[in-house]
Structures are given as C-alpha cells and as structure tokens.
Write a structure and sequence with these properties.
Layout (H helix, E strand, L loop, with lengths): L2 E5 L2 E4 L4 E8 L7 E7 L6 E7 L5 E3 L7 E6 L4 E6 L8 E8 L13 E2 L3 E6 L1
Parallel strand pairs: 2-11
Antiparallel strand pairs: 1-3, 3-8, 4-5, 4-9, 5-6, 7-8, 9-10, 9-11
C-alpha cells in the first residue's frame, strides 16, 4: 500500500511563494505519474500539475503555467510543487496523488492514491 504525505502548506501574502512536498512510502513505489490537485471551499477538486515518474514529463493547468513548477526526486520518492506569485484565489487544500497506470494525468480518475492534503492560504 502506498501512502502519500504532503507538507509545506501555510499562510502567505499575495505575491509570495511556497514549496509543497509530497513524500511517498510503501514497499515498492514506481508510479506512472504524480500529480497535484487543489480544492477550494465549495468548489470541485481541480488539476494543478503532474509529472511522469520515469521521464519527468510535466503537465500544467493553463492558468498555473508559469507560476507553478512541479518536479520530482525519484531517490527520495518525493514530488514537489513550487508556487510563486501566489494570489488569494490560489487558496485551497492541495492534494498529492499517484497514478499506477499510463492514463491521462490531468484527470482525477487516473489516480489510485491520494494524500490527506495541505492547506495553502494566500492573504491579500
């Protein structure tokens, strides 16, 4: 069984930066890809960014491209989300997820494992 633990969330002023981390644990961990999603109060969980585990191919939601950067450290079983120029509308719970199979990484349905989330709050 794979467990995902997010960290790095917090309160930041608009224009600031945060780096989220997601560490995976389990007997064997070799996903097809890892993703970040977020969910604001009263809204659906939405795609933020994803990365393929072997080749590091990245995908971004159009509205986040340029401000957010996803990366991974295979040796540490960790994926990161670097967020810059944060805006109040980026406030949400951010979730890390892992996908076993080569399915579209922009879709929530492609993911088999989810973390519990980390709160990001951006004040204006």
């Amino acid at each position: 069984q794979v467990q995902l633990v997010e960290s790095g969330g917090g309160l930041v002023q608009a224009g600031g930066s945060l780096r989220l981390s997601c560490e995976a644990s389990g007997r064997t961990f070799s996903p097809y890809g890892m993703g970040w999603f977020r969910q604001a109060p009263g809204k659906e969980r939405e795609f933020v960014a994803a990365i393929t585990w072997s080749y590091g191919i990245t995908f971004y939601a159009d509205s986040r491209k340029g401000r957010f950067t996803i990366s991974r450290d295979n040796a540490k079983n960790t994926v990161y989300l670097e967020m810059t120029s944060l805006k109040p509308e980026d406030t949400a719970v951010y979730y890390c997820a892992a996908a076993r199979a080569p399915l579209p990484l922009r879709s929530r349905d492609s993911y088999n494992y989810w973390g519990q989330g980390t709160q990001v709050t951006v004040s204006s």
